[in-house]
Specification:
Number of strands: 11
GO molecular function, one term: peptidase activity
Order of helices and strands: EHEEEEEHHEHEHEEEH
Family: Belongs to the peptidase C56 family.
Largest sheet: 7 strands, mixed
Protein name: Protease
CATH architecture: 3-Layer(aba) Sandwich
Oligomer: single chain
Distance between the termini: 13 Å
CATH superfamily: Class I glutamine amidotransferase (GATase) domain
Organism: Sutcliffiella horikoshii
Radius of gyration: 14 Å
Keywords: Glutamine amidotransferase, Hydrolase, Protease
CATH class: Alpha Beta
CATH topology: Rossmann fold
Length: 173
């Protein structure tokens, strides 16, 4: 198992894209990583766009970036909610400063935009937020997955195998 000593925080709020949250969680656990689910409140059940639930382990407020090797931001509509929490934006900025892997897929780029960490970065996302990414100073490309330093970005569910292959590679290194 490549990631047996790694700990990853997965952000969550309602209306996450079910596959974009669950596929990474399961793949990381298969590789031996500990994945901690962080929501607004600990012990709360959040529901994905297609009705798949997940329960948070901890709250955003109680999450300490120093305790984690990487962070994942799901897609769907939840990034529009997640980017409103200063605790999350601070966590993203801190992890970026420490060059820890930050995974973002689909609309998750909104969180990185609000954290103001995309200036000069090469990224991808769902085409629906392409202009937002560019306006935040990023170079946007239409590819399944882009790795620019510690930021691993992807477009949508069909790209999940490529996304997780690269995220796992970066985290393992």
């Amino acid at each position: 198992m490549k990631l047996h000593n790694k700990k990853v925080i997965q952000l969550v709020s309602d209306d996450f894209e079910d596959l974009e949250l669950w596929y990474p969680v399961l793949r990381l656990r298969e590789e031996g990583a500990e994945v901690v689910i962080a929501g607004e409140k600990a012990g709360t059940t959040y529901i994905g766009k297609y009705g798949v639930p997940i329960q948070s382990d901890i709250s955003f407020h109680d999450a300490n970036p120093a305790d984690y090797d990487a962070i994942l931001v799901p897609g769907g509509w939840s990034p529009d909610k997640l980017r409103r929490y200063e605790d999350i934006l601070t966590m993203i900025r801190t992890m970026d400063e420490q060059k820890k892997p930050i995974g973002q897929i689909c609309h998750a780029g909104w969180v990185l935009i609000s954290a103001k960490i995309l200036q000069g970065k090469k990224v991808t996302s769902t085409p629906g937020i392409k202009d937002d990414m560019i306006n935040a100073g990023a170079e946007w490309v239409d590819e399944a997955v882009i790795v620019d330093g510690n930021i691993i970005s992807s477009r949508r569910p069909p790209d999940l195998p490529d996304y997780m292959r690269e995220f796992i590679r970066v985290l393992a290194d």
